[in-house]
Amino acid sequence: MNYLAHLFLAQPTVESRVGNLLGDFARGVNTELLPEPILKGLENHRLVDRYTDSHPAVKQLKALVSPQRRRFAGIMLDMAFDHYLIKHWDRFSSQPFEASCKEYYLSLYQGADLMPERMRTITSRIIEQDWFSSYASIEGIGLALDRIAGRIRFQNEFAGSIDELLLLQGQIEQSFLKFFPELIGNVAMQKIEAGNLSS
């Protein structure tokens, strides 16, 4: 899953939200030194990724991506899932998306000192450039994917991948609406972090 979904699946605390994003920045981090709430958030992040990667609906979607982009299928779907989470936000949260988004940004700002340097740099960009609001449009997802493609150091055909997502958007949206409630239920059942899920 991508950043927004990980924050959605975190507990409503700074430490949990930092931990739930840390999974994408944990290389080189000595997890034994992490405070318990951040470590639990990191463990929850890893649970979410394992469940997502092993889910039959996600595997089926990845198989639909063209061979030249299939190695990037996980990234493409993670970004698309954030888009459909926003599109269907009212199904999953009683709080408006805009209010949740502000809470997430505030938590990332307040938790900056708890983050490794690269994570701190990226989260400051997320806040300053309001990445999450841009994910509300499919065009915003396309721009984000092209930015990722531009940072890849080896030759690839990842740029323009939004064209494939547009072709598959009906299937992706339908699969997301089936898969995401199951993911929420799995996270709640595992209870890695104490308390109830909150957006």
Radius of gyration: 16 Å
Tell me about the biggest sheet?
none
**N-to-C SSE string, H for helix and E for strand:** HHHHHHHHHHHH
Number of domains: 1
Task: Count the beta strands.
Answer: 0
Chain-averaged pLDDT: 93
What shape does the CA trace take?
Answer: globular
Q: Based on helices, strands and strand pairing, what is the structural class?
A: mainly alpha
Query: In percent, how much strand structure appears in the residues?
Result: under 5%
Q: What is the helix fraction of residues, given as a range? A: 55-70%
Provide a compact summary of the structure:
The protein has 199 residues and is mostly helical.
What this model shows, in words?
This protein is mainly alpha-helical and 199 residues long. The chain has one domain (3-190). Helices cover 67% and strands 0% of the residues. The protein contains 12 helices and no strands. α3 crosses α12 (169-190), α5 packs antiparallel against α10 and α5 crosses α12. The longest helix is centred in the C-terminal third of the chain and has 22 residues, at 169-190. It is globular, with a radius of gyration of 16 Å.
